[in-house]
Amino acid sequence: MALKPLHDAAGLSEFSAVTFQAVSGTGRAALGELSDASRAVLAGDGFDHRVYPHNIAFNVLPHIGDFDEEGISGEEWKMIRESKKIMGLPELRVSCTTTRVPVYRGHSESLTACFDKSISPREARTILEKAPGVAVADGPENALYPLARDAAGRDDVFVGRLRRDTARKNCLSMWVVSDNLRKGAALNAVQIAELIG
Question: Which domains does the chain have, with CATH numbers?
């Protein structure tokens, strides 16, 4: 949602991402495990994790799916393949690390996208403000940026922290957040059905 309007304007050539995925992406048992584990940690008690390979409470796990012989997880391969397919760019270069975080609902991503043409943060902001289904929350000087808690229960994909990449030319960095249950599953299914029907 955030990259397609920018691609249309400047030609996306590659992007790298680190995802911060909520436990609801794993299912109901994971939600219960986060609650139970959090109570146990706060009480100073031990906890036997069941859903994840480590305790998720107050932790970040760089592990979603099985790892292959190169150390790339199933979720990372899924993100690479789906990004190319959804964007219609089979040659798109994608690099990612997917993590599970102790958040109930709302996936977040730190993205750095590189383009064929130069695009400034201001231009990107203007493009994204006009994009359907995208809401820009970009005023870091006033602590205004997308938060997983604020995205919960909402349909939009929220984008903020738009800035030039400090290492590469024609690249922008940004923070993207959405409700993974609403936008990532339910709303996408409805919108696809509407397009087909």
Answer: 3-22+60-196 (3.30.360.10)
